[in-house]
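#struct-help
A.M.: can someone run this one for me? Single chain, 140 residues.
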Amino acid sequence: MNTTELLPHVNAVLNASTCVLLMLARVQIARRRIQSHRAWMLAALAVSALFLVSYITYHLTSPIFVFRGHGLVRPLYYALLISHVLLAAIAIPMILVTAWRGLHRSDVQHRRLARWTWPVWMYVSVSGVVVYLMLYQIYR
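D.P.: on it. Structure tokens below:
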């Protein structure tokens, strides 16, 4: 397996890791442990940045992988993929603005946006793993 064949698997691990980090961060803020929350969120941001670099590298260097599922699963896959891609594009600026506000202790504005950003980011991360499983594992 060459490097570009390995990248989808690396991307799935990075997406799954982001899910875990986001959950850990959510637990910490619910317990009002701001420093711990910040550390987990910065880790999630770093892992997501690594994912984005890996994802772009893969798609610039590899042919498009065709989904091989048939029947009802096909429109379900594409609905998931489309929602994943659209929300990922929306999530990037949301994540950056939310992080900026949190790091600069604009707490009211940070919380207001984070209520939307966290679930969108989590959906994108989870749906990314599901898309990977459907594309590279289940319907290969």
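A.M.: thanks! Residues 43 and 108 are 22 Å apart (CA to CA).
D.P.: also worth noting: The mean pLDDT is 94.
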